[in-house]
Amino acid sequence: MRIEAKKLSDYPWFVRRLLAKQKHAHGEVLAPGFLWGRSPSVFAAVASLSRALDRNRSPIPPELRSLIAARVSQIISSPFCVDINRATLVERGVTRDKVEALADWRRNPLFDERERAVLDYAEAVTGRERKVDDALMDRLKQHFSDDEVVEITGLICFQIMSSKFNAALDVPSGGFCKLPATLDEAAAAEPGPAAAEPRSAAAPPG
User: What whole-number distance in Å separates Cα of residue 187 and Cα of residue 190?
Assistant: First the structure.
């Protein structure tokens, strides 16, 4: 990493408490936590927003939240975020084939129309080559309410921030996902303009 962690005792008590919660949840303190902890007030706010976006009562299903987060991480090329979000996908019951096909979702029949709409939106919000237009928003609203669209947009933007933070500070993969990263290099490439949807896009979800 480009900035090293401080000694645990050098962090304020409430930062140490947040780091302890990470250790309980993941078996270890996550490397970005040590970095965010250097700005204690910001870390507390970031942790609170993260919990809110991933709350149990979120209107967005957990598997879909993880698909969004993983795809944004791939586009930004954050090794830490790609790894931990892939691991979360597996934990939430997404099949290995689907996890490995995420970067190629446009051509893969494992993704249903709802997932395709939200992944297309995530790419448009994240990338530089495209912008969100009315047609894309109308397509998204065929599957999600206005409140859900706001929630999805917040989740995408939060993941953009997290991924850029970790990429800028060169936070390495934590080795959480045991699947082979067969598509990571292709996934890191920023998506270009949307291509026409293949016929197989109408296939049922996997």
Answer: 8
